[in-house]
Amino acid sequence: MRSIKPVQFKRMLKAISYLSLLGTLLGLLPAVALAAPPSPLDPASPAARSIANLHTITLIVATLVFLIVCGLLIYSLVRFRRKSANDPEPDQSFHGNTTLEVIWTIIPVGILATLLVLTYQTLQDISPDRPTQMTIRAIGKQWLWEIQYPDHNIKLTNQIRVPVNTDVKVEITSQDVIHSFWIPQMGGKKDAVPGYLSTTWFKADRLGTFHGQCAEYCGLAHSKMPIELVVLDQASFDLWAEATAEQQANASAQGELLFGTAGCAGCHAINGQGGQIGPELTNVYVDKGPDYIHESIVNPNAVLAAQCPTGACPAGIMPQNFSEILSEDDINSIIEYLKEVSGATE
Ligand code: HEC
Ligand SMILES: [Cu+2]
After folding, report:
1. Alpha-carbon distance 343 to 337, whole Å?
2. What's the CATH code of the domain at 71?
3. Ligand 1 and 312: CB distance under 6 A
4. How far apart are CA 207 and CA 114, in angstroms?
5. Residue owning the nearest CA to atom 39 of ligand 1
6. Which helix (H) or strand (E) holds 273?
7. Cα separation, 141 vs 192, whole angstroms
8. pLDDT digit string, tens, across residues 231-289
9. Distance CA 235, CA 226 (A)
10. Mean of the pLDDT values across residues 100-112?
């Protein structure tokens, strides 16, 4: 073996310390990024708390191992270095040391076994197989989350409202591609897979607003799939749920009526039934969203649809004066109706 000169050794030591500094900084980076809300390290539900605890314990253990191993490495490099070229080659004739080998086998096995048990416990904690007090359904669509309340007859878009301290079961699925439901402060991610119902649960333990996001890249407008979770006290939730259910039932019925009386049905089909002059509108809510529909009604030539039943869409056929005939409430109820029919196709 070529002997290492002290200068080279110093350079090596310098390189090692810079590298470990860089490593530490890189390791800290996610922690800094996560410090801003919504952080999984600021849990507000038992499952999220269990995940955060497992993360913290693992991080502490991993940091201790890292420090001990690096400490031993650096100590050995310094303590047993060849101090001058005249030093004899170090004795390389040692063989196994049973005590040492047993120790460095038992310790890692013990650490891994402990982490295994803790991980298993966390898996139990986040498992949805448990009694729940309320069920909601989250359906991923390109590009929105439709939130349904089967027990309350409410539908929301990109928004969830729940009472505090209530076990909520979330049934998750998708209408098109794979999405992922994630509210970091409530629990882990759960994929929304077409044709498959996955479940998760949460129990928000404080009032407030929490943010989530589709966590699976699902196409161009992936970023337009945020989730806003508002946690209310039980009384406020009940009031809101009753009012919203009533309002949605009314609005949608009112919208259906207007769709006929204002003449929309003469030109547009819903579920294959109706006029064939303008494009079928069954899925327009899901495909293009409420703002687009609004604009199509008040200012039809500003946003021309591409494909009509008889070919390319002609401009100027759809009446230009709906903004004078229909009130803002009328238009919103039509949008509500189109929202409902789009949901009915899934
Ligand atoms: C005389 C026929 C006619 C009537 C009545 C009519 N539309 Fe249209 N509509 C069209 C045509 C043609 C288009 C395609 C050209 C365009 O985008 O303006 C269209 C486009 C649309 C679009 C955009 C569709 C897409 O896929 O991009 C929406 C939404 C829409 N109409 C809603 C309505 C509503 C709501 C009413 C009733 C308040 C209504 N229309 C009444 C003919 C009509
Ligand atoms: Cu998505």
Report:
1. 10
2. 1.10.287.90
3. no
4. 35
5. 264
6. strand 273-274
7. 10
8. 999 999 999 999 999 888 888 888 998 998 888 998 999 988 888 888 999 989 988 88
9. 26
10. 93
Residues ≥6 apart with Cβ < 8 Å to 273: none
The region of weakest confidence among 12-21, 144-153, 162-171, 232-241 is 12-21
Q: Is residue 74 part of a domain?
A: yes
pLDDT of 85 above 70: yes
Please indicate, yes or no, whether residues 105 and 145 belong to a single structural domain of this protein.
Answer: no
For residue 80, how far is the Cα from the chain centroid? Answer: 51
Give the separation between CA 13 and CA 20, rounded to whole angstroms. 11
- Ligand 1 atom closest to 280 (CA): 26
Do 147 and 202 share a structural domain?
A: yes
- DSSP H or E segment with residue 149: strand 144-149
User: Does the N-terminal peptide bond of residue 38 adopt cis geometry, omega within 30 degrees of 0?
Assistant: yes
Asked if residue 198 is part of any domain, the answer here is yes
Token readout for 41 is: 């390290």
Closest atom of ligand 1 relative to the 258 alpha carbon? 38
User: What is the C-alpha to C-alpha distance for residues 253 and 280, in angstroms, rounded to an integer?
Assistant: 19
Token couple for 270: 């819903």
Say if ligand 1 is within 6 A of residue 319 CB. Answer: yes
Question: Could you tell me if 179 and 113 lie in one domain?
Answer: no
Q: At residue 285, what is the residue type?
A: Y
Task: Report the candidate in 333, 184, 205, 215 with the shortest Cα–Cα distance to residue 264.
Answer: 333
Q: What's the CA gap between 325 and 262, in Å, rounded?
A: 8
The response to whether residue 277 sits with its C-beta less than 6 Å from ligand 1 reads yes
CB-ligand 1 contact for 293 (6 Å cutoff): yes
Give residue 211 CA to ligand 2 midpoint distance, Å.
15
Residue 285 falls within a domain, yes or no?
A: yes
Q: In the chain, how many domains are there?
A: 3
Q: Is 91 domain-assigned?
A: no
pTM attached to this predicted model? 0.64
Query: Last residue of some domain: 243, 263, 295?
Result: 243
Question: Which of 179, 209, 243 is a domain's end point?
Answer: 243
- In this structure, what token pair is assigned to residue 251? 């609005």
Residues 177 and 210 reside in one and the same domain: yes
